[in-house]
Amino acid sequence: MPKVIRVNMTDLSVRIEEAPAAWAGLGGRALTSTVVAAEVPPTCHPLGPNNKLVFAPGLLSGTAAGNAGRMSAGAKSPLTGTIKESNAGGTCGRMLGRLDIKAIIIEGQPASTDAWYNIRISNEGVVVEPETETVGLNNFAVLESVARRYGEDKGVITIGSAGENLMLISNISTRDPEGKLRSFGRGGLGAVMGSKRVKFITIDQDGTRPVPLVDSAAFKAANMVFTKALKDHPVSGQGLPTYGTAVLVNILHEIGGLPTRNFTSGQCEHHDMISGEHMYDTIVARGGEPTHGCSLGCVIQCSQVYNDKDGKYLTSGFEYETIWAFGADCLIDNLDLIAECDNVMDDLGVDSIETPVMFGVAMEAGILKFGDGKEVLRLLREEIGKATPLGRVLGGGTALVGKTYGVARVPVVKGQGIPAYDPRSVKGIGVTYATTTQGADHTAGYAVATNVLNVGGKVDPLSNVGQVELSRNLQIATAAIDSTGLCLFIAFPALDIAECLPATVDMLNARFGTKLTMDDVVGLGKTVLKLEHEFNLAAGIGPEQDRLPEFFELEAIAPHNVKWDMDQKELATFWNF
Amino acid sequence: MVMRITVKLFATFRENRFKEARREYPPGTTVADVAAELEIEAGLIGMIFIHGRAAELDRVLEEGDVLALFPLLGGG
């Protein structure tokens, strides 16, 4: 029977329970949000004993399904005050699937802040022990220590110094198949893990058997249709493997939706220096790997290994949002410096969207100059990394820095930094930023696909018409995909290739012996969104916070000279489903 | 009489071609004509922008237009 592991950090007890029957059809985000909504008081302090940190693999985790390496982490967010789900690739989701563990729920809080703990999960059971060796260390050193003490092949979930210091920009990191890092990036979940005094969790899959399938022939057949769709679609089959997500830099620049110099322009002069095309050429010239997977079984391989000019490893998993935020929003025109920042952020364990968006506001505040990548590195290492008073202000994120320094142009929704698409020139994504239960989050309903990329149809990005419906449909579908453990990038083929999404439903049915239909999957997405919304309302995050910052209504953005002018009443119709 | 058009190419379309070029075309030239002249298969074109706004293959170009051609791409 599927298991749920509860670790109570108040008394360091562990309970291994049979998963309730009602959770049978839930995984990933559907499960983390169900647990948080049912068990966490919405009004609790996110860093207090009543919050819970929930990890859940997806419904297909551990199977041979293509691109099924994603898992979810959930809690009440200290950054947004809302319910939060963040997800990452890496090795742990697959291992938890094989261990038949549906969720790890970390509850309570030690009374004393003197000690730290590690949690080790295996087929034999769960061990909670005091941790001393890695306290104060950052993520790469934690991975080394875990590999030396427990073996190279263990799954690892860890926080760096930023999480230990309860910073709102902190994330939770997890080991990838090659011993580098992927991140549960958004919402300050590293601080929640730090508040539980858990430094790291290891997962050991030794002694497990392949995940049982009710109908393995049907599973194989559906997986073949699914992986063929991933390979056939030009986005997942060619664009992403070659250029990675940074291929978006030139596209967003071209359409005037690349937020530049703290969201004061939609175009960036040095866009080509920070583009996916330039990155590809640089990686190839320096002997790196342009095509690389974040988890076993990945067909798309959008990650990469980026080397420095001497051919030595500089970073991997070098994403569009990170490159945009430092490259255009902070005006750093040097991809090597941005790659170094990326690596330092991975090590400290800070969100690579929140952190550079915060730096854009810090630059406007005069803490450092626009374009000064060297000073960003110093602030990361010497101030944030050492938790100095300035480091703690910066570590509080975009909204806190804006408040502290009296900046009015602060790109956040519900306290979370706005990502790499300007909502004035890509209006569909503006609806998603305003309405998602997560605070500004492009992945919650990626309207950029249909507004700009001509995937899943076409809706004019500069018009308000049709944007609420587009964002709603995408947010519902995304909440469902977020529950399967499948990579979100399967959405590109799923939006264009008719057989793709039904094949994922066929895989679920073959795995569990269920008779789910596409309508059931859509229903799951709606249920997840509604329970998240209810949590937020009970937490005091009401409809008046489903809006973009005022400056988007006041300041027109070049080159299209457009403002945000969506009627608030129309936005509120988002929840009519 | 000729029209001066700035053509920008991205991703795989740059291979053996160029990033950006100012080119001359006769009046009445469409986006499809430019693609054909550059030996870019129309079926591979995912996004067409003229002055940063979406356009179709049959769009007739005008003097001074900035035309950007992308294959189908995505990220996020």
Automatic annotation (TrEMBL), chain A:
SMART domains: AFOR_N. This is Aldehyde ferredoxin oxidoreductase. Keywords: 4Fe-4S, Iron, Iron-sulfur, Metal-binding, Oxidoreductase. Signal peptide: none annotated. Pfam families: AFOR_C, AFOR_N. One of its GO terms (molecular function) is metal ion binding. Residues 1-207 form the Aldehyde ferredoxin oxidoreductase N-terminal domain. Its cofactor is tungstopterin; [4Fe-4S] cluster. It comes from Pleomorphomonas diazotrophica. Belongs to the AOR/FOR family. Gene3D superfamilies: Aldehyde Ferredoxin Oxidoreductase Protein, subunit A, domain 2, Aldehyde Ferredoxin Oxidoreductase Protein, subunit A, domain 3, Aldehyde ferredoxin oxidoreductase, N-terminal domain. InterPro entries: Ald_Fedxn_OxRdtase_dom2 (IPR013984), Ald_Fedxn_OxRdtase_dom3 (IPR013985), Ald_Fedxn_OxRdtase_N (IPR013983), Ald_Fedxn_OxRdtase_N_sf (IPR036503), OxRdtase_Ald_Fedxn_C (IPR001203), Tungsten_al_ferr_oxy-like_C (IPR036021), W-dependent_AOR (IPR051919). The keyword 4Fe-4S applies.
